[in-house]
Structures are given as C-alpha cells and as structure tokens.
Amino acid sequence: AVGIGVGSMIGAGIFALMGQAGAIAGKAVYISFILGALVAAISGYSIAKLGAKFPAAGGIVEYVVQSFGVNIFTGGISIMLYISKLIALALLSKAFGSYAAALMDMKNDTLYVNIFSVTILFLLGLIHYFGIKKVVKFENASTLITVIILLVFAVVGLLYMNPELMAPNLYPAGNKILFSIAITFFAFQGFSIIAHTAENIPNSGKTLPKAIFISIAITLVIYTSLAVAVFGNLEVNEVINARDYALAEAAKPVFGMLGFTIISIAALFSTSSSINAVLYSAVNVTYQMAINGELPGFFAKPLGKSREGLLISLILTVALILFLNLLQIAAVGSITVLFIHATTHLGHLRVLKATKASGFMVTTAFVVTLTLTVLFLIYSSQKSFTILILSLSIFALSMFIEFLIRAITSRKVKKESKKKVDKGFFNTA
Fold first, then answer.
1. More confident residue, 301 or 306
2. Region of poorest pLDDT, from 126-135, 285-294, 380-389
3. How far apart are CA 15 and CA 244, in angstroms?
4. How far does Cα 36 stand from its chain's mean position?
5. pLDDT by residue (tens digit) across 197-246?
6. What ranges make up the beta strands (E) of 281-342?
7. d(C-alpha 188, C-alpha 10), whole Å
8. Can you give the pLDDT at residue 358?
9. What distance separates the 2 farthest-apart alpha carbons in the chain?
10. How confident is the model at residue 413 (pLDDT cuts 50, 70, 90)?
11. What CA–CA distance (Å, rounded) separates 41 from 56?
12. Residue 415's pLDDT is what?
C-alpha cells in the first residue's frame, strides 16, 4: 500500500509540480510542501477511516454515495472524479513532453512539447489495447529507480548548495505561500489511491492510516530535500524560466549536462510509468461507472484487451493537452481535487457514527480543504481568469452530464458495497 502511494505521488508531483509551486512560493516552496503534506495527512485520516468502513475499488465514489445517497449530486461528483483523472493524465503527459523537449534542446517549444505529450499518451494507450499485465510488473521497479536517483541528487545538491540563496529575506509574502499549498497538496493527492486497496489488505482499519501517513512522510522527505536543493542552486527567476523542467535545470550547477540528462531521463521514466497507472485506473473507473449507470454503457464495451473508455479517455486528455498549458492544468487539477476532498469530508461528518472517526479531525479536514479551494480560486482568478472559468465549468459540466445521462437512460446508480466490484489495477499489480 505504501509503494502504491509513494509511486503515485512521486511521478505526478516532483517532476510536474516543483516548478509550478516554486513560481508562486519561490524560495519558501519547501515550507509549502511541508504544509501541503500536513493537509494531506489530515485529509488522509478521514479518507482512511472511510476506506476501512466502506472498502470498495471505487474509493471516493463509494464514500460520497454512502454519505449523501444516490442522487444527481453524488453522480456528478463521480464524473468530476473521472475528469480529475483526465487532468492528472494531461498533467503527467505535459510534464513528459516538457522534459523530452528540454532533453532534445527544444525547450519551451509548445509544438514539440505537445507532440511528445500526445505521443507518449497514445503509445501507452496502445499497450493497454494489447494488454497491460507485463507493463504493470515494472511499476514498482520504476518507482524504486526514480526514488534512488532523486535521493542521490537531493543529497549531493544539498552538499553543494549556496546557503545564501535560501536566506529568509528572499522568501515571498506569507499569502503566496498559502496560495501555493493548493499546488503542493495536489502533489500529495496520490495518497487517496491507497484507499482503493482497502479490499485487498488485512486489518484495513489500522493498515490504511499507517500506509497513508508513512507514504506521505516518505514523499515529504524527498520533496522538501529536492526543493531546498533546487532553490539552493538556482535563483527564483531561473526556476520560473525552466519551471516545466525545473528539476533537470537544477541538476546543472552540481552535475553539469550529465546531471541534466540523467534527471530528464528519470523524469521521462517516472512520468510515463505514472501515466500508465493513471490511465489503467481511469479506464477501470469508467467501466465501473458505466455498469453502475453513471456513464453511457459503451464505456464498458470491450476494446482489444481494454475497454472503449480507453479511447474516449485518450481523446479527452489530448484536448486538455492541446488547449491548456502546464500551469493551467496544475491549477485546475488542484482546485478540482481539493473540492472533491472537501465534499468527501463533509459527507464523512454524516456517517461519523459508522466510521468511528474523530469529529474534530474530520471537521478540520473539511474546513482546511474548503478554505484552500476558495483561496486558490481567488489567487487563480487574479492571475488568470481562464482558470476560474475552467474550474467552475468542470463542476457545472459534471452535474449537467449526470443529469443528462439519468434523464436519457433512466438508469439508477447502484452502491458498490452491495455487489462485487472490479479491483482493477491494484488486483493486477
């Protein structure tokens, strides 16, 4: 369970979001990562308690149904969760494209970034079409290799860093650190995937919280070490200029071009591995939602050794890649995930007696995630009105799609806990 959590967080977080968070929090980004981890831990407590009581492959989809019942709102949240997976796919693909372009000396060339992003997405989609079992086997190995490379870079980077570049007087205003927590929380949001393993692990009531907290702690050590190493070797403007491939750029002062190349290759390996896992998870989610009536039935129809949800997910993700930049994807993804978590914690308050969770902890999780959602919406609207419109549009679109599907098909959603569910990727892994 810890391996799944760390693997999910490292691929999506450090390569895709270090530069984006650093562009807001500057030299204090390591503080933002610490605060983001704290929010993730509080949120993780609530998720773990729900997972232990309502173990299901659907995870949050099941929790909101148990809390709010079967209705348009919970169906809309399920669709929003699927959209958040597409956003994660676009984020990872865009990060892959950015590092690939940088490695080939095509930095900041949007055309080539998009070409590489779409190419890796469809190559992995092709693998899913013909069968994923062999690819799944090296998921844990790729995570281990990436972590080792990052730890070596972090240790050496810390040894060679310039302490003057991390002087407190260079930190930005406190409100910017608060605004950046939404991005750093998104870097930790992979912890929620651990809850999907509740059906497959013994004594989930004790194991889930431990696995979530341990995975967040391991990831926090890596993130904060790398954040200090990056900003201890680069000026803020250098990180901002190279924010789509900041980690590779930070390797230059210490390791030269060899370091830049090694980190870039590690990024390609890690992000492609994460794309593979998220894509498989997204297809399984759409399959489960389709047989439950939350999506049209054709999502559940076979397509090679996968399902038609694969092709639809690929097409929708490509649209996100082509029309949004990495910052917009990260911002919209952060807001969407925070809102979903806030909704989940609000629902948890309705079933506290069943989960036997601490009311104080669950209330804190709800207040903190909702506050961060509002704060980041305010910040995003000041920087880019597009992000605000996109975020509100995702909520409206999710509810509209759910309403439309229910009106056309007259199908009703079934609770996962009352039937056998497809364990999907985690059962295979």
1. 301
2. 126-135
3. 8
4. 13
5. 666 677 777 888 888 999 999 989 988 988 888 888 888 887 777 777 77
6. 302-303, 306-307
7. 8
8. 92
9. 64
10. very low
11. 21
12. 45
**In sequence order, what E strands does 193-342 have?**
302-303, 306-307
Contact 305, 130 (CB under 8 A): yes
CA distance 330 to 353: 36
Query: Which residues pair with residue 306 across a beta bridge?
Result: 303
* Cα–Cα distance, 40 to 237 (Å, whole number): 29
Place of tokens 């629902």: 347
CB atoms within 10 A of CB 319: 11
- Which residue(s) pair with 303 in the sheet? 306
Q: Which amino acid is at 392?
A: L
Cα–Cα distance, 231 to 234 (Å, whole number): 5
CB-CB contact of 300 with 156 (8 Å): no
Residue whose tokens read 């990180």: 239
Give the integer Cα–Cα distance in Å for 204 and 211: 10
Q: From its phi and psi, is residue 107 left (phi > 0), alpha (psi between -120 and 50) or beta?
A: beta
Per-residue confidence at 304, pLDDT binned at 50, 70, 90?
low
- The Cβ of residue 3 has, within 10 Å, a number of other Cβ atoms equal to 16
What 3 state SS string does 239-276 have?
HHHCHHHHHHHHHHHHHHHHHHHHHHHHHHHHHHHHHH
CA torsion sign for 227, 233, 234, 239 is negative
Task: Of 152, 168, 167, 146, give the one whose Cα is nearest residue 254.
Answer: 152
Q: Which of 127, 78, 103 is nearest to 277 (CA)?
A: 127
Tokens for 390, please give them: 């996109």
Q: Which two tokens stand for residue 120?
A: 């890796």
* Cα–Cα distance for residue pair 279/310, rounded to 1 Å: 8
Residues in the chain: 429
Q: For the residues 100-109, what does the mean pLDDT come to? A: 83
